[in-house]
């Protein structure tokens, strides 16, 4: 019995080293996620992190400190009417937009930290968005 315990004590560390050795598994770490490139500077800003109580007028007022706001819109839920947490601000010039982005990105609005970045252009509509039935449908026009 004592002999068996001595043998196990001598073998156990080697066995564990072999079990946990990374070279035995040929482990390669996953590639780091690629950050999406920022959108090109434009007069349009995408604002995220908005409070549910933020209104279009409140968004316009907060961003008007940095230039002439041509258009501001808080995207709202159709049923409740509350903000979905994001919106858009359009300035008269790209320079004003960059000042607004720098001035409001990471600041508080209605008690929430908001993030401002240049808005990405909308992708072109697909055939599905033009009212065609979904795939697998037997609907004929």
From TrEMBL:
<dbReference type="Pfam" id="PF00076">
    <property type="entry name" value="RRM_1"/>
</dbReference>
<protein>
    <recommendedName>
        <fullName>RRM domain-containing protein</fullName>
    </recommendedName>
</protein>
<dbReference type="InterPro" id="IPR000504">
    <property type="entry name" value="RRM_dom"/>
</dbReference>
<feature type="compositionally biased region" description="Polar residues">
    <location>
        <begin position="127"/>
        <end position="141"/>
    </location>
</feature>
<feature type="region of interest" description="Disordered">
    <location>
        <begin position="27"/>
        <end position="50"/>
    </location>
</feature>
<dbReference type="GO" id="GO:0003723">
    <property type="term" value="F:RNA binding"/>
</dbReference>
<dbReference type="InterPro" id="IPR035979">
    <property type="entry name" value="RBD_domain_sf"/>
</dbReference>
<feature type="region of interest" description="Disordered">
    <location>
        <begin position="121"/>
        <end position="141"/>
    </location>
</feature>
<dbReference type="InterPro" id="IPR012677">
    <property type="entry name" value="Nucleotide-bd_a/b_plait_sf"/>
</dbReference>
<keyword id="KW-0694">RNA-binding</keyword>
<feature type="domain" description="RRM">
    <location>
        <begin position="43"/>
        <end position="121"/>
    </location>
</feature>
